[in-house]
Design brief:
This protein has 16 helices and 24 strands. By secondary structure, the chain is of the alpha+beta class. Strands 14, 15, 16, 17, 20, 21 and 24 form a seven-stranded mixed sheet that branches. It has a six-stranded antiparallel sheet with strand order 2-1-6-5-4-3. A hairpin with an 8-residue loop joins strand 14 and strand 15. Helix 12 crosses helix 13. It is elongated and about 135 Å long.
Length: 607
């Protein structure tokens, strides 16, 4: 008789066998089923009595088509011959209802008191694992797709906020959309200032770049009535999706024919046309297409494309507003840059280069005029700020200085003090820098320079033999800081001789300073090139100087004076000179000649 303890152990093992969450079979040495647990019956939809005594392989093991497999290929039966554990996955068992269930299994020999008595097979429904794996893979694929979209949107945003001209920006935008969003992309925009005229500014098709390039150019005008997807997008400011049936329709206008040509030459089975728009206006339309038959666009893709097009429209609107501001500011500045006087063989020349960006244009100016006592003045200045408001403040400061200089014959230091007080108490103009100079001397020379400097880069004096010197004297605080006067600061008057055939150059900081070059390096570059150009005609001097330095970014104003040769003299009179012209940008120039100081002396104390 078995002991009570042995019976309890057998009962416990039976409970474990019945409670396992996996199907369990026990076979004899021939592969016939001798035991199965409830989970095996549940997974296979078969009662125990329908399975016990049957051969495991013949009853349950099946191929993908439901056919019985050869016993020689059954890994579960091989355990009985080899005596070694084995396992497998994605094999099929036949359920009681005739359906197949994929399983993952493990089999191990069953030994009792050292004798091989059969095998134990444990199995799970692999479809549960497979569904979970497929779901995980689907989530990962969706996440990868979202990441790719976010990466593309980030790249698009970078292009949109870059300091690019609109056509270049749109061309790069189209390039970023293929192949992620389509096999090709095209952008059509309204012609600036025209309501109905269109132009195709970008076409990107990696599979046929030559044809894509040929499809750019002017388009037929927008018709009054048409089914054209481009016109629908322009007028509704809503995306228009096109399937194969839509693309098969005959075009009903020249513009629709031009749009259809994209598909005839580049291919396409589906497409999306989205407007480039803001609340104020529609600038054009973006077309993205897929070539593979049966392709389509999801709602998520439509949303992404519409959002990208809206962002592009906002950038185009900002660019248009900047250009308008730039035009107004530049026009204002050029109107204020009056013709230069001509006095007693003194030669004057000036240049003004507007900023490359509308956001940078603003406060630079030059001026030169005769005072009531017949003395010639030279002025260069820069009002703080880079916008249309700065240009307006520049005009205000310029005109105040003209009026104050004309009203009284006073040293430059007093004129500068009165200008600072006027700016502080009667104007909302911000701080400004300025050099104000008088060119004095008897008829025919010798000539002297009498000047003050309110926080501006120092004038540069270049002698006929190429010696150069920055006129550092006469330097005082910026204008608009009247508090500086209460601290004992002011603008000391300074004088310097102007030798025969010498050149005096006044300039704004845009010539010598930029985001990529500090002002010290810029001053050194200016000095070298000015020395090398000392013998050039004054007009050529300015043009070549600008060509060699090639300033970029901020606006630039230059004002140059050339004294006559020794012994040359004439009467004083005023006659307008021709307007200065901006030179074309060119390469940087050759090294300058040696540097030598020119004597300069202060003639008053600060304060």
């Amino acid at each position: 008789m078995r002991s009570a303890e042995g019976l309890l152990e057998i009962g416990f093992m039976r409970t474990v066998f019945d409670s396992l969450g996996a199907g369990v079979f026990v076979t004899d040495l021939t592969g016939r089923l001798t035991a199965c647990n409830p989970r095996a019956q549940q997974l296979l939809g078969r009662p125990q009595k329908a399975m016990l005594g049957h051969d495991l392989h013949d009853l349950l093991h099946r191929g993908p088509d439901g056919d019985t497999l050869p016993r020689s290929g059954c890994g579960m039966l091989a355990v009985l011959d080899s005596g070694r554990p084995a396992e497998g996955s994605e094999e099929l068992f036949l359920r009681g209802d005739g359906s197949l269930v994929p399983i993952i299994w493990a089999a191990t020999p069953l030994r009792h008191e050292g004798r091989m008595e059969g095998s134990v097979v444990v199995f799970h429904d692999f479809s549960l694992h497979r569904d979970a794996a497929e779901q995980t893979a689907a989530h990962l694929a969706a996440l990868e797709g979202l990441t790719a979209r976010l990466t593309m949107v980030a790249e698009v945003s970078t292009v949109l906020i870059s300091a690019l001209e609109t056509p270049e920006m749109l061309d790069r935008l189209a390039g970023l959309l293929v192949p992620d969003m389509g096999d090709w992309a095209a952008i059509d925009v309204r012609t600036a200032g025209q309501t109905n005229e269109m132009r195709r500014v970008a076409v990107r098709a990696p599979h046929d770049p030559r044809t894509a390039e040929a499809l750019r150019g002017p388009l037929p005008p927008v018709p009054e009535s048409t089914r054209s997807a481009v016109v629908q997008a322009l007028r509704s400011a809503e995306p228009v999706a096109l399937d194969a049936d839509d693309l098969a329709e005959a075009p009903d206008s020249p513009l629709a024919s031009a749009h259809r040509e994209l598909f005839d030459r580049l291919g396409g089975s589906c497409a999306v046309v989205v407007p480039l728009y803001t609340r104020r206006q529609v600038f054009g339309a973006l077309t993205v297409a897929r070539v593979e038959p049966g392709s389509s666009y999801s709602e998520a893709e439509l949303f992404v494309l519409a959002d990208i097009a809206r962002r592009a429209g906002l950038v185009m609107e900002a660019g248009e507003l900047f250009e308008q501001q730039r035009h107004v500011a530049e026009t204002m500045q050029r109107q204020l840059l009056t013709p230069l006087p001509q006095v007693d063989h003194l030669e004057l020349a000036a240049r003004y280069l507007p900023a490359e960006s509308a956001a940078e244009i603003g406060g630079d100016w030059y001026d030169s005029f005769l005072l009531s006592d017949g003395v010639l003045t030279m002025v260069i200045g820069d009002v703080v700020g880079h916008d249309l408001k700065a240009a307006a403040h520049m005009a205000e400061v310029r005109n105040m200085l003209r009026a104050l200089a004309w009203d009284r014959t006073e040293p430059p230091s007093l004129i500068m003090r009165r200008l600072d007080e006027a700016m502080t108490h009667t104007s909302d103009a911000p701080m400004a820098t300025c050099v104000f100079a008088r060119i004095e001397g008897p008829e025919g020379g010798p000539w002297k320079l009498h000047w003050v400097n309110a926080g501006h880069p120092p004038p540069l004096l270049i002698t006929a033999d190429g010696h150069t010197h920055f006129l550092e004297a006469g330097h005082g605080p910026l204008l608009g800081l009247s508090s500086a006067l209460h601290m004992g600061l002011g603008w000391p008057d300074a004088e310097a001789d102007l030798p025969p055939r010498s050149t005096l150059l006044l300039y704004t900081d845009g010539l010598v300073e930029s985001r990529t070059r500090d002002i010290e390096a810029g001053l050194d570059t200016l000095r070298r090139h000015a020395a090398a150009l000392a013998r050039r005609d004054i007009e050529d001097f300015l043009d070549e100087l600008l060509r060699r330095i090639d300033p970029s970014g901020d606006d630039v104003a230059l004002l140059a004076l050339r004294t006559p040769a020794a012994g040359v003299g004439a009467g004083t009179g005023e006659a307008p000179a021709q307007h200065a012209h901006s030179p074309a940008a060119a390469n940087r120039g050759a090294p300058g000649s040696r540097i030598e100081d020119t004597p300069v002396r202060d003639t008053s104390e600060p304060g």
